[in-house]
Amino acid sequence: PPKTNGTAKFGIDAKLPGLLTAVVARAPVPGAKPVKYDAAKIRAMPGVKAVLPVQSPTAEGIAVLATNYWYAKQARDALDIEWDLGAGATLSTDTMRTEMTEAARKGEGLVAQQTGDVGAVSGKSVKALYDVPYLVHAPMEPMNCTAWVKPDGVEIWSGSQAQGPNQMTAAALTGFTPEQVKIHSLLLGGGFGRRFAPDMLTEAVLLSKSAGAPVKVVYSREDDTRGYYYRPMAVCEMTGTLDGKGRPLGFKASTVCDSLATGSGFEAMIMKDRIDGTAVEGLVEPPYAIPNVRVDWTLYQPGVRTWFWRSVGSTQNAFFLESFVDELAHAAGQDPVAYRRSLMAGHPRHLAVLELAAQKSGWGQPLPKGVARGVAVAESFGSYVAEVAEVTLVDGKPKVLRVVIAADIGTVVNPDTVVAQMEGAMIYGLSAALQGEITFDAGKVQQSNFHDYPVVRMNEAPKVEVHLIRSTEAPGGVGEPGTPPIAPAVANALFALTGERVRSLPLSRHNFKTA
């Protein structure tokens, strides 16, 4: 009820006596450093109480503290800062894609899986190169955090995904023990991994410590969109070798992307033998009977900070793998569901969701003219999800009419919650598949708000059906596993509809014609 009657308290609703609101001028290109600015001019503006530098490994810029958000934003926007732009001023999406493509085609990265010998098999060869862009999280509630550094400890008010790490970070910034840091957990208006990042907490704590007052840091939509906490851009080249019956004898995937582990504080948990597990999750140990497999990863770090995004590495790798399996099915002259089914005997939970999604979607049954189906299956966070998308074209652009989701998440406690999370995760992934991208030109992010980083709106949303498999297995994740399959399912449907294979997201880059 509180969420429907307006009484629910989100992080941005935090109020305290003497609270100052801070808006930060951040680097205009990745890695830029502030050199000179006129603080006296800004301090004279209405409501402004302080102009302070912010400097830490995760946050750097010039903050304006004022009695309310509007005063702080107006003053921040009036700051005339001279920046040392550094190497970030040369960043270009086109250049990064070219460099990553060259690295993927070399296929000389660190080996994450080596089963058999892909170089020793012969047969029909299928090769494809895929790429996905940087993505921002775009939660509806603007990013925020309120901190009050007192003489005897710190209090934090936040809608956070990382209360434990936040406690440790605040203690390190102030010199207090973790026990002297109290976290007040308020509701959050969308997280998707973004509210796991430390930047807003770091800024709030440092500014409160300097100002001697409680401080609420608030990001505008533009601040967050251009804030350099992105799902990594990635390029992957895949090669498959088929025998005379179309069965895969060999599979090689060479992926290139940044490391989410590096600099996140989770290196010990994620890195193994110098390989970032998030970079290859969803690629290693594919759920198909292929005797010879090689997966390698090349680290690419152009200076853009990357961060955990909903479904993490599976978001791009499911698109790569499930699009490529569809290509193998086409090369083998077989139905995409039948082809997957023939290779999944050793993976009964993958197979079960595939079968359920195919059955409930009416796979193989006639569709109206101008409509086609596509399918994809992915495991992430211990849950197994298959999705079938029905797609048509409107003015040369894809419109998704219906999505059927089959999920095995293990033991289900609350089916309504599971269904809602599957629906939301799919819509989130669909927004990215259709329209999401962050691009750079001369170091500057080209997107800023929902007008140029659009999300799926109500009139664009498909009909959704969610079907759950009864299981006594341990519960898996629910909030993230519905995201990975939707992009390949839609792309595969577009191939069935148009005969054009899309290997680069978002789909809005392309104009289609019905085959």
Topology of helices and strands:
Layout: H1 2-5, E1 20-26, E2 33-36, H2 39-43, E3 48-55, E4 60-66, H3 69-78, E5 82-84, H4 93-106, E6 110-115, E7 124-132, E8 144-150, E9 153-158, H5 163-174, E10 181-185, H6 199-211, E11 215-218, H7 221-225, E12 234-242, E13 248-257, H8 267-270, E14 271-272, E15 275-276, H9 277-280, E16 292-299, H10 314-332, H11 336-343, H12 348-361, E17 372-380, E18 383-394, E19 397-408, H13 415-435, E20 440-441, E21 444-445, E22 463-468, H14 486-498
Parallel strand pairs: 1-11, 9-10, 13-16, 19-22
Antiparallel strand pairs: 1-4, 2-5, 3-4, 6-16, 7-12, 8-9, 8-11, 12-13, 14-15, 17-18, 18-19, 20-21
Helix pairs in contact: 5-6, 10-14
Structure description:
With 515 residues, the chain is α+β, with helices and mostly antiparallel strands. It is 28% helix and 27% strand. It has 14 helices and 22 strands. It has helices spanning 2-5, 39-43, 69-78, 93-106, 163-174, 199-211, 221-225, 267-270, 277-280, 314-332, 336-343, 348-361, 415-435, 486-498; strands spanning 20-26, 33-36, 48-55, 60-66, 82-84, 110-115, 124-132, 144-150, 153-158, 181-185, 215-218, 234-242, 248-257, 271-272, 275-276, 292-299, 372-380, 383-394, 397-408, 440-441, 444-445, 463-468. It has a 7-stranded mixed beta sheet with strand order 3-4-1-11-8-9-10, sandwiched between helices. A 5-stranded mixed beta sheet has the order 6-16-13-12-7, sandwiched between helices. A hairpin with a 2-residue loop joins strand 18 (383-394) and strand 19. Helix 5 (163-174) runs parallel beside helix 6 (199-211) and helix 10 (314-332) packs parallel to helix 14 (486-498). The longest helix has 21 residues, at 415-435. The protein is globular, with a radius of gyration of 24 Å. The model has no long low-confidence stretch (mean pLDDT 97).
